[in-house]
Design a protein that fits this description.
alpha+beta; Immunoglobulin-like; Jelly Rolls; 4-stranded mixed β-sheet; DUF1214
Protein backbone atom coordinates (compact mmCIF):
# COMPACT_ATOMS: atom_id res chain seq x y z
CA UNK A 1 0.00 0.00 0.00
CA UNK A 2 1.04 3.60 -0.53
CA UNK A 3 1.01 6.57 1.88
CA UNK A 4 -2.28 7.74 3.43
CA UNK A 5 -2.76 10.85 1.30
CA UNK A 6 -2.16 9.00 -1.95
CA UNK A 7 -4.34 6.09 -0.80
CA UNK A 8 -7.18 8.48 0.01
CA UNK A 9 -6.98 9.99 -3.47
CA UNK A 10 -6.96 6.59 -5.16
CA UNK A 11 -9.93 5.49 -3.04
CA UNK A 12 -11.77 8.64 -4.06
CA UNK A 13 -11.05 8.07 -7.75
CA UNK A 14 -11.94 4.37 -7.47
CA UNK A 15 -15.35 5.38 -6.11
CA UNK A 16 -15.79 7.72 -9.07
CA UNK A 17 -14.72 4.99 -11.47
CA UNK A 18 -16.87 2.29 -9.90
CA UNK A 19 -20.04 3.98 -8.64
CA UNK A 20 -22.16 3.08 -11.68
CA UNK A 21 -20.86 -0.51 -11.59
CA UNK A 22 -22.07 -0.97 -8.02
CA UNK A 23 -25.45 0.59 -8.79
CA UNK A 24 -25.71 -1.85 -11.68
CA UNK A 25 -24.70 -4.78 -9.49
CA UNK A 26 -27.59 -4.11 -7.10
CA UNK A 27 -30.05 -4.73 -9.95
CA UNK A 28 -28.05 -7.59 -11.48
CA UNK A 29 -27.98 -9.43 -8.16
CA UNK A 30 -31.69 -8.96 -7.49
CA UNK A 31 -32.75 -9.94 -10.98
CA UNK A 32 -30.25 -12.53 -12.21
CA UNK A 33 -28.64 -14.08 -9.11
CA UNK A 34 -31.02 -14.14 -6.13
CA UNK A 35 -33.80 -16.56 -7.08
CA UNK A 36 -35.66 -15.72 -3.85
CA UNK A 37 -36.01 -12.05 -4.74
CA UNK A 38 -39.45 -11.14 -6.19
CA UNK A 39 -37.64 -9.14 -8.86
CA UNK A 40 -35.78 -12.24 -10.11
CA UNK A 41 -36.05 -12.45 -13.91
CA UNK A 42 -35.17 -16.13 -14.23
CA UNK A 43 -31.39 -15.84 -14.24
CA UNK A 44 -29.01 -15.13 -17.08
CA UNK A 45 -30.26 -15.68 -20.61
CA UNK A 46 -33.98 -14.99 -20.27
CA UNK A 47 -36.31 -12.02 -20.44
CA UNK A 48 -38.92 -11.07 -17.88
CA UNK A 49 -41.61 -8.97 -19.51
CA UNK A 50 -43.83 -6.42 -17.81
CA UNK A 51 -46.89 -6.33 -20.01
CA UNK A 52 -48.76 -3.50 -18.32
CA UNK A 53 -47.77 0.07 -17.43
CA UNK A 54 -46.11 0.59 -14.06
CA UNK A 55 -48.07 1.63 -10.99
CA UNK A 56 -46.97 2.84 -7.53
CA UNK A 57 -46.82 -0.83 -6.48
CA UNK A 58 -43.84 -1.44 -8.80
CA UNK A 59 -40.55 -0.74 -7.05
CA UNK A 60 -38.01 -2.63 -9.20
CA UNK A 61 -36.40 0.55 -10.44
CA UNK A 62 -36.43 4.23 -9.57
CA UNK A 63 -38.08 6.71 -11.96
CA UNK A 64 -39.91 3.89 -13.81
CA UNK A 65 -40.97 4.62 -17.37
CA UNK A 66 -44.76 4.58 -17.57
CA UNK A 67 -45.08 4.77 -21.38
CA UNK A 68 -42.99 1.82 -22.53
CA UNK A 69 -43.34 -1.29 -20.33
CA UNK A 70 -40.10 -3.09 -19.68
CA UNK A 71 -38.45 -6.32 -20.73
CA UNK A 72 -35.56 -7.17 -18.40
CA UNK A 73 -32.75 -9.48 -19.44
CA UNK A 74 -29.21 -10.37 -18.33
CA UNK A 75 -26.61 -12.25 -20.36
CA UNK A 76 -23.40 -14.10 -19.50
CA UNK A 77 -21.02 -13.70 -22.46
CA UNK A 78 -18.00 -15.48 -20.99
CA UNK A 79 -18.38 -18.78 -22.85
CA UNK A 80 -20.07 -17.64 -26.06
CA UNK A 81 -22.15 -14.88 -27.66
CA UNK A 82 -25.95 -14.75 -27.71
CA UNK A 83 -28.21 -14.39 -30.74
CA UNK A 84 -30.78 -11.60 -30.47
CA UNK A 85 -33.67 -11.76 -32.96
CA UNK A 86 -36.61 -9.40 -33.47
CA UNK A 87 -39.48 -9.46 -36.01
CA UNK A 88 -40.91 -6.44 -37.83
CA UNK A 89 -42.42 -4.13 -35.18
CA UNK A 90 -44.83 -1.29 -35.95
CA UNK A 91 -44.07 0.98 -32.98
CA UNK A 92 -41.29 2.40 -30.85
CA UNK A 93 -39.24 -0.30 -29.14
CA UNK A 94 -35.67 -0.67 -28.01
CA UNK A 95 -33.46 -3.46 -26.70
CA UNK A 96 -30.45 -1.55 -25.30
CA UNK A 97 -27.56 -3.70 -24.06
CA UNK A 98 -25.50 -2.11 -21.27
CA UNK A 99 -22.21 -3.39 -19.88
CA UNK A 100 -21.21 -3.56 -16.21
CA UNK A 101 -20.30 0.13 -16.35
CA UNK A 102 -23.89 0.92 -17.51
CA UNK A 103 -22.40 2.08 -20.83
CA UNK A 104 -24.24 0.80 -23.90
CA UNK A 105 -22.62 -1.79 -26.12
CA UNK A 106 -25.34 -1.17 -28.71
CA UNK A 107 -29.03 -1.09 -29.46
CA UNK A 108 -31.63 -2.98 -31.44
CA UNK A 109 -34.45 -0.50 -31.85
CA UNK A 110 -36.93 1.34 -34.04
CA UNK A 111 -34.76 4.44 -33.63
CA UNK A 112 -31.44 2.88 -34.68
CA UNK A 113 -31.78 -0.42 -36.55
CA UNK A 114 -35.31 0.28 -37.83
CA UNK A 115 -38.71 -1.40 -37.58
CA UNK A 116 -37.90 -4.35 -39.83
CA UNK A 117 -36.85 -7.85 -38.70
CA UNK A 118 -33.26 -8.44 -37.66
CA UNK A 119 -30.76 -10.88 -36.17
CA UNK A 120 -27.79 -9.66 -34.14
CA UNK A 121 -24.87 -11.23 -32.31
CA UNK A 122 -24.33 -10.04 -28.72
CA UNK A 123 -20.68 -10.79 -27.91
CA UNK A 124 -18.29 -10.24 -25.02
CA UNK A 125 -14.80 -8.71 -25.04
CA UNK A 126 -13.06 -12.01 -25.83
CA UNK A 127 -15.10 -12.75 -28.98
CA UNK A 128 -12.96 -12.92 -32.12
CA UNK A 129 -15.34 -14.66 -34.52
CA UNK A 130 -16.42 -11.65 -36.56
CA UNK A 131 -19.94 -11.43 -38.00
CA UNK A 132 -21.45 -14.80 -38.96
CA UNK A 133 -23.45 -15.08 -42.17
CA UNK A 134 -27.11 -14.05 -42.07
CA UNK A 135 -26.53 -11.66 -39.16
CA UNK A 136 -27.34 -7.98 -39.42
CA UNK A 137 -24.55 -6.93 -37.06
CA UNK A 138 -22.51 -7.62 -33.95
CA UNK A 139 -22.95 -5.82 -30.65
CA UNK A 140 -19.65 -6.16 -28.78
CA UNK A 141 -19.65 -5.45 -25.05
CA UNK A 142 -16.57 -4.37 -23.08
CA UNK A 143 -17.51 -6.63 -20.14
CA UNK A 144 -18.42 -10.30 -19.77
CA UNK A 145 -21.90 -9.59 -18.44
CA UNK A 146 -24.51 -7.28 -19.94
CA UNK A 147 -28.03 -6.27 -19.04
CA UNK A 148 -30.96 -5.19 -21.15
CA UNK A 149 -33.78 -2.93 -20.05
CA UNK A 150 -35.99 -3.24 -23.12
CA UNK A 151 -38.89 -0.89 -23.77
CA UNK A 152 -41.95 -1.38 -25.94
CA UNK A 153 -44.48 1.40 -26.52
CA UNK A 154 -47.91 0.73 -25.02
CA UNK A 155 -50.56 2.06 -27.40
CA UNK A 156 -54.34 2.30 -27.15
CA UNK A 157 -54.48 0.15 -24.03
CA UNK A 158 -53.90 -3.05 -26.04
CA UNK A 159 -52.17 -5.30 -23.50
CA UNK A 160 -52.51 -8.42 -25.68
CA UNK A 161 -50.63 -6.81 -28.58
CA UNK A 162 -47.99 -5.44 -26.24
CA UNK A 163 -47.50 -8.89 -24.77
CA UNK A 164 -47.27 -10.48 -28.23
CA UNK A 165 -44.53 -8.06 -29.30
CA UNK A 166 -42.56 -8.51 -26.09
CA UNK A 167 -42.62 -12.28 -26.37
CA UNK A 168 -41.38 -12.05 -29.96
CA UNK A 169 -37.97 -10.89 -28.68
CA UNK A 170 -35.72 -13.95 -28.94
CA UNK A 171 -32.38 -14.58 -27.21
CA UNK A 172 -30.54 -17.90 -27.57
CA UNK A 173 -26.87 -18.92 -27.18
CA UNK A 174 -24.92 -19.02 -30.43
CA UNK A 175 -24.29 -22.75 -29.98
CA UNK A 176 -28.03 -23.40 -29.85
CA UNK A 177 -28.59 -21.28 -32.93
CA UNK A 178 -25.91 -23.27 -34.80
CA UNK A 179 -26.96 -26.65 -33.39
CA UNK A 180 -23.49 -27.07 -31.89
CA UNK A 181 -22.35 -28.29 -28.44
CA UNK A 182 -22.82 -25.72 -25.70
CA UNK A 183 -19.58 -24.52 -24.07
CA UNK A 184 -19.61 -24.28 -20.28
CA UNK A 185 -18.69 -21.21 -18.25
CA UNK A 186 -17.05 -21.48 -14.84
CA UNK A 187 -19.60 -21.36 -11.98
CA UNK A 188 -19.44 -18.17 -9.95
CA UNK A 189 -19.99 -17.34 -6.31
CA UNK A 190 -21.55 -13.90 -6.47
CA UNK A 191 -21.13 -11.73 -3.35
CA UNK A 192 -24.45 -11.33 -1.55
CA UNK A 193 -25.87 -7.85 -2.05
CA UNK A 194 -25.95 -5.77 1.11
CA UNK A 195 -27.58 -2.37 0.67
CA UNK A 196 -25.45 -0.80 3.39
CA UNK A 197 -22.30 -1.83 1.54
CA UNK A 198 -23.05 0.64 -1.26
CA UNK A 199 -22.17 3.52 1.07
CA UNK A 200 -19.50 2.04 3.32
CA UNK A 201 -16.04 0.80 2.39
CA UNK A 202 -17.27 -2.66 1.45
CA UNK A 203 -18.06 -0.83 -1.79
CA UNK A 204 -14.47 -1.61 -2.77
CA UNK A 205 -14.90 -5.35 -2.17
CA UNK A 206 -17.77 -5.39 -4.67
CA UNK A 207 -15.80 -3.27 -7.10
CA UNK A 208 -12.79 -5.59 -7.12
CA UNK A 209 -15.04 -8.60 -7.69
CA UNK A 210 -16.71 -6.98 -10.70
CA UNK A 211 -13.46 -5.78 -12.25
CA UNK A 212 -12.49 -9.37 -13.10
CA UNK A 213 -15.25 -9.33 -15.73
CA UNK A 214 -14.15 -5.97 -17.15
CA UNK A 215 -10.84 -6.08 -19.04
CA UNK A 216 -9.09 -2.73 -18.73
CA UNK A 217 -9.94 -0.37 -21.57
CA UNK A 218 -7.30 1.93 -22.99
CA UNK A 219 -9.14 5.04 -21.86
CA UNK A 220 -9.22 3.65 -18.31
CA UNK A 221 -5.59 2.60 -18.15
CA UNK A 222 -4.43 5.27 -15.70
CA UNK A 223 -7.12 4.73 -13.08
CA UNK A 224 -7.03 0.94 -13.48
CA UNK A 225 -3.26 0.95 -12.89
CA UNK A 226 -3.59 3.19 -9.84
CA UNK A 227 -6.39 1.04 -8.44
CA UNK A 228 -4.32 -2.10 -8.99
CA UNK A 229 -1.46 -0.51 -7.03
CA UNK A 230 -3.61 -0.61 -3.88
CA UNK A 231 -5.03 -4.10 -4.46
CA UNK A 232 -8.08 -3.29 -6.61
CA UNK A 233 -6.72 -5.39 -9.45
CA UNK A 234 -9.80 -7.36 -10.48
CA UNK A 235 -8.77 -10.70 -8.99
CA UNK A 236 -11.78 -10.61 -6.68
CA UNK A 237 -9.54 -11.12 -3.65
CA UNK A 238 -9.56 -7.59 -2.21
CA UNK A 239 -11.09 -7.39 1.27
CA UNK A 240 -11.45 -4.16 3.21
CA UNK A 241 -11.60 -6.31 6.34
CA UNK A 242 -7.87 -7.00 5.80
CA UNK A 243 -6.90 -3.32 5.93
CA UNK A 244 -5.05 -1.95 8.93
CA UNK A 245 -6.45 1.03 10.84
CA UNK A 246 -4.56 3.66 8.84
CA UNK A 247 -5.45 2.12 5.50
CA UNK A 248 -9.06 1.77 6.54
CA UNK A 249 -9.20 5.43 7.54
CA UNK A 250 -7.76 6.46 4.18
CA UNK A 251 -10.30 4.38 2.28
CA UNK A 252 -13.13 5.79 4.39
CA UNK A 253 -11.97 9.34 3.73
CA UNK A 254 -11.61 8.64 0.02
CA UNK A 255 -15.09 7.15 -0.06
CA UNK A 256 -16.52 10.24 1.64
CA UNK A 257 -14.67 12.46 -0.84
CA UNK A 258 -16.09 10.48 -3.75
CA UNK A 259 -19.64 10.64 -2.43
CA UNK A 260 -19.39 14.40 -1.86
CA UNK A 261 -17.97 14.92 -5.35
CA UNK A 262 -20.79 12.96 -6.99
CA UNK A 263 -23.46 14.77 -4.96
CA UNK A 264 -22.01 18.09 -6.10
CA UNK A 265 -21.83 17.09 -9.75
CA UNK A 266 -25.34 15.62 -9.69
CA UNK A 267 -26.79 18.79 -8.15
CA UNK A 268 -25.86 20.73 -11.30
CA UNK A 269 -27.32 18.26 -13.84
CA UNK A 270 -30.70 19.42 -15.18
CA UNK A 271 -31.24 17.01 -18.11
CA UNK A 272 -29.88 13.80 -19.58
CA UNK A 273 -27.59 15.24 -22.24
CA UNK A 274 -24.21 13.50 -22.03
CA UNK A 275 -25.27 11.08 -19.27
CA UNK A 276 -25.98 7.98 -21.38
CA UNK A 277 -24.44 6.51 -24.50
CA UNK A 278 -22.08 4.02 -26.10
CA UNK A 279 -18.42 3.52 -25.23
CA UNK A 280 -17.43 5.87 -28.05
CA UNK A 281 -19.62 8.57 -26.52
CA UNK A 282 -18.87 7.92 -22.84
CA UNK A 283 -15.14 7.06 -22.79
CA UNK A 284 -13.58 8.60 -19.69
CA UNK A 285 -16.79 10.44 -18.74
CA UNK A 286 -17.01 8.90 -15.27
CA UNK A 287 -18.89 11.80 -13.68
CA UNK A 288 -21.49 11.74 -16.44
CA UNK A 289 -22.17 8.03 -16.24
CA UNK A 290 -22.37 8.26 -12.44
CA UNK A 291 -24.92 11.06 -12.56
CA UNK A 292 -26.91 9.01 -15.04
CA UNK A 293 -26.81 5.98 -12.73
CA UNK A 294 -27.74 8.11 -9.73
CA UNK A 295 -30.61 10.03 -11.33
CA UNK A 296 -31.99 7.56 -13.86
CA UNK A 297 -30.25 4.20 -14.00
CA UNK A 298 -30.33 2.72 -17.53
CA UNK A 299 -31.52 5.92 -19.15
CA UNK A 300 -31.09 6.31 -22.91
CA UNK A 301 -29.12 8.88 -24.95
CA UNK A 302 -31.04 11.98 -26.11
CA UNK A 303 -31.23 10.99 -29.78
CA UNK A 304 -33.31 7.98 -28.69
CA UNK A 305 -34.95 9.16 -25.48
CA UNK A 306 -34.33 12.59 -23.95
CA UNK A 307 -34.94 13.24 -20.26
CA UNK A 308 -35.45 16.57 -18.55
CA UNK A 309 -37.62 17.79 -15.73
CA UNK A 310 -38.33 19.87 -12.71
CA UNK A 311 -37.26 19.58 -9.08
CA UNK A 312 -37.60 23.26 -8.17
CA UNK A 313 -40.09 25.90 -9.28
CA UNK A 314 -39.53 29.20 -11.06
CA UNK A 315 -38.59 30.82 -7.73
CA UNK A 316 -36.01 28.16 -6.95
CA UNK A 317 -38.10 26.37 -4.30
CA UNK A 318 -38.47 22.60 -4.18
CA UNK A 319 -41.82 21.57 -5.59
CA UNK A 320 -44.35 20.01 -3.21
CA UNK A 321 -48.00 19.06 -3.18
CA UNK A 322 -48.70 21.89 -0.74
CA UNK A 323 -48.57 24.25 -3.76
CA UNK A 324 -50.44 24.20 -7.09
CA UNK A 325 -48.29 24.61 -10.23
CA UNK A 326 -48.63 25.12 -13.96
CA UNK A 327 -46.24 24.24 -16.79
CA UNK A 328 -47.04 26.15 -19.98
CA UNK A 329 -45.52 25.15 -23.31
CA UNK A 330 -45.91 27.56 -26.18
CA UNK A 331 -46.58 25.86 -29.51
CA UNK A 332 -42.87 26.22 -30.33
CA UNK A 333 -41.78 24.88 -26.92
CA UNK A 334 -43.64 21.58 -27.17
CA UNK A 335 -41.10 18.74 -27.49
CA UNK A 336 -40.68 17.72 -31.12
CA UNK A 337 -40.32 13.94 -31.11
CA UNK A 338 -40.49 11.38 -33.89
CA UNK A 339 -42.36 8.93 -31.67
CA UNK A 340 -43.94 10.66 -28.64
CA UNK A 341 -43.26 12.60 -25.42
CA UNK A 342 -44.58 12.39 -21.87
CA UNK A 343 -44.19 13.98 -18.43
CA UNK A 344 -44.23 11.62 -15.43
CA UNK A 345 -44.47 12.55 -11.74
CA UNK A 346 -42.45 10.79 -9.04
CA UNK A 347 -42.37 11.03 -5.28
CA UNK A 348 -39.25 12.33 -3.54
CA UNK A 349 -36.99 10.83 -2.24
CA UNK A 350 -38.30 7.43 -3.39
CA UNK A 351 -38.57 8.44 -7.07
CA UNK A 352 -41.54 6.12 -7.53
CA UNK A 353 -44.95 6.73 -9.11
CA UNK A 354 -47.47 8.56 -6.94
CA UNK A 355 -50.86 6.99 -6.19
CA UNK A 356 -53.81 9.23 -7.12
CA UNK A 357 -57.57 9.09 -7.59
CA UNK A 358 -57.54 8.94 -11.40
CA UNK A 359 -54.55 6.56 -11.76
CA UNK A 360 -52.77 9.08 -13.97
CA UNK A 361 -49.01 8.94 -13.53
CA UNK A 362 -47.96 10.70 -16.71
CA UNK A 363 -49.35 13.06 -19.32
CA UNK A 364 -48.23 13.86 -22.85
CA UNK A 365 -49.08 14.02 -26.52
CA UNK A 366 -50.77 10.59 -26.44
CA UNK A 367 -53.00 11.31 -23.40
CA UNK A 368 -56.69 11.25 -24.47
CA UNK A 369 -58.65 14.46 -23.95
CA UNK A 370 -55.71 16.81 -23.31
CA UNK A 371 -56.74 20.41 -24.03
CA UNK A 372 -54.57 22.72 -26.15
CA UNK A 373 -55.00 26.50 -26.41
CA UNK A 374 -56.17 28.15 -29.61
CA UNK A 375 -52.56 29.23 -30.21
CA UNK A 376 -51.32 25.65 -29.95
CA UNK A 377 -49.97 26.07 -26.42
CA UNK A 378 -50.37 23.47 -23.69
CA UNK A 379 -50.70 24.16 -19.97
CA UNK A 380 -50.29 21.28 -17.54
CA UNK A 381 -51.77 21.60 -14.05
CA UNK A 382 -49.60 19.86 -11.48
CA UNK A 383 -51.25 19.79 -8.06
CA UNK A 384 -52.55 17.54 -5.32
CA UNK A 385 -56.26 18.37 -5.58
CA UNK A 386 -58.38 17.95 -8.71
CA UNK A 387 -58.85 21.28 -10.54
CA UNK A 388 -62.42 22.58 -10.48
CA UNK A 389 -62.30 23.78 -14.10
CA UNK A 390 -62.99 20.84 -16.49
CA UNK A 391 -60.40 22.05 -19.02
CA UNK A 392 -57.78 22.28 -16.30
CA UNK A 393 -58.80 18.85 -15.02
CA UNK A 394 -58.20 17.44 -18.53
CA UNK A 395 -54.59 18.59 -18.21
CA UNK A 396 -54.15 17.55 -14.58
CA UNK A 397 -51.04 15.66 -13.47
CA UNK A 398 -51.89 14.61 -9.88
CA UNK A 399 -49.25 15.28 -7.22
CA UNK A 400 -48.76 13.80 -3.74
CA UNK A 401 -49.07 15.91 -0.61
CA UNK A 402 -45.31 15.93 -0.12
CA UNK A 403 -42.27 16.65 -2.31
CA UNK A 404 -42.08 15.37 -5.87
CA UNK A 405 -40.32 15.76 -9.18
CA UNK A 406 -41.60 15.69 -12.76
CA UNK A 407 -39.52 13.99 -15.47
CA UNK A 408 -40.20 14.58 -19.15
CA UNK A 409 -39.17 12.12 -21.86
CA UNK A 410 -39.10 12.63 -25.63
CA UNK A 411 -38.60 9.61 -27.89
CA UNK A 412 -36.76 10.26 -31.13
CA UNK A 413 -36.32 13.97 -30.51
CA UNK A 414 -35.38 16.56 -33.10
CA UNK A 415 -31.92 18.09 -33.49
CA UNK A 416 -32.43 20.60 -30.67
CA UNK A 417 -33.28 17.78 -28.26
CA UNK A 418 -30.52 15.45 -29.47
CA UNK A 419 -27.86 18.19 -29.27
CA UNK A 420 -28.97 19.53 -25.90
CA UNK A 421 -30.13 23.01 -26.95
CA UNK A 422 -33.83 22.44 -26.22
CA UNK A 423 -35.04 24.20 -23.06
CA UNK A 424 -38.10 23.42 -20.98
CA UNK A 425 -40.44 26.08 -19.64
CA UNK A 426 -40.49 26.66 -15.87
CA UNK A 427 -42.92 25.05 -13.44
CA UNK A 428 -44.67 28.01 -11.83
CA UNK A 429 -46.65 28.34 -8.58
CA UNK A 430 -50.23 29.51 -9.12
Amino acid sequence: MTDAAALRLIARDAYTFGYAMIENYRTLYEQAVDAQDPRFTGGFGSYRHYSEPFTPANTDIVTPNNDTPYSWGWFDLRAEPWVITVPAIDRFYILPFHDLYTVYAGYVSAATTGTGPGRYLLAGPSWTGGTPEEFDGVITASTDFVGCLGRTAFTDGDVDELRRIQHSYSAVPLSQHLGAPTPAAEPLSWPTWDEAAATDIRFYDYLDYLLQFAPALEEDRDIRDRMASVGLDGRGAFRTSDLDDNQRAAFEQGLADGIAHLDDVASHASNSTGLFGTREEMAGAYDNRNVGAKKGLYGLPPAIAWYGGWLVDSAGNHITGATDYTITFTADQLPKARFFWSATLYTIPQRLLSANEIDRYSIGDRTPGVHYGEDGSLTLHVQHGRPADPLEAANWLPAPEGPFTVIIRAYGGDTAIAEGTYRLPAITPR
